Amino acid sequence: MSHFSPDDLARQLGRGLLSFPVTHFDAQGAFLEGRYRDHCGWMLEHELTGLFAAGGTGEFFSLTPDEVAKVVAAAVQEANGRIPVIAGCGYGTAIATGIARDAEKAGADGLLLLPPYLMNSTQNGLAEHVEAVCRATGLGVIVYNRDNAIVDDETLARLCDRNPNLIGFKDGVGDIELMTRIFARMGDRLTYIGGLPTAETFATPYLTMGVTTYSSAIFNFMPEWALAFYKAVRAGDQAHVMAGLRDFVLPYIALRNRGKGYAVSIVKAGMRIVGRDAGPVRSPLTDLSVQEEAELRVLIDRAKG
């Protein structure tokens, strides 16, 4: 059973930093529940306001629906009501509604609705998809605007009017005009989450538009650094923010951009470097090369000082 109502979830998520644990696999790609739970527990030793299980960084796209439920249940057990656990959800409507119901049974507190697999659609079609997921569960739902699933402000307003458990909007597009229209129209009806990769790059400008939180993948391997950066953003400490961007985030992004699909691979590489190996990524993703991982090690060592 959920520990956070949709309204409680919305208030909680906007208060601080969020993170997405990677999903742990062995060499054959099987889920390692014990090591995953250990990692979630380690993350929860630090200051977080929400844990997104089986999200994009958690390789949602490579998990079966049954595996999503197992990953979410493991995170729920480890969190034990201390902070909300939000489950990844997606694919076509029939699969997404099933994942939503399974996540609720597993004890999740909310859902992050990722884009439907591959399909492009009209605003009406996207609205039907989002509404079907909202109505399949009593959990709070966060819609993730990105790629082939970009709802506009009018569609989002209709969805908010019809679905009280639609409590959040995560932006992965970076369209300033659209974000401004959405915030101007919905105001505090929604909690707004920064979801562009890498979120730290956009944190300061997005804060001025009412986006008080974002999801940090870097938290997986440098939680103290990630928290200090987030607090600098919230405090308006521009010198700290710019130093963090210049010395770590921008070189990290340049390394990530060398390979397609490296957004997850580079996080797992970071975990190996700090001694918290989460195993390989699942295909079709590929891991960083030995040389690339060595370059990441230099960045991490310098950032940790």
TrEMBL record:
Keywords: Lyase. The keyword Nucleotidyltransferase does not apply. PANTHER family: 5-DEHYDRO-4-DEOXYGLUCARATE DEHYDRATASE 2-RELATED (PTHR12128:SF19), DIHYDRODIPICOLINATE SYNTHASE (PTHR12128). It comes from the Bacteria. HAMAP family: KDGDH. GO terms for molecular function: 4-hydroxy-tetrahydrodipicolinate synthase activity; 5-dehydro-4-deoxyglucarate dehydratase activity. InterPro entries: Aldolase_TIM (IPR013785), DapA-like (IPR002220), Dehydro-deoxyglucarate_dehyd (IPR017655). Its EC number is 4.2.1.41. SMART domains: DHDPS. Pyruvate binds at residue 57. This is Probable 5-dehydro-4-deoxyglucarate dehydratase. Pathway: Carbohydrate acid metabolism; D-glucarate degradation; 2,5-dioxopentanoate from D-glucarate: step 2/2. Belongs to the DapA family. It catalyses: 5-dehydro-4-deoxy-D-glucarate + H(+) = 2,5-dioxopentanoate + CO2 + H2O.
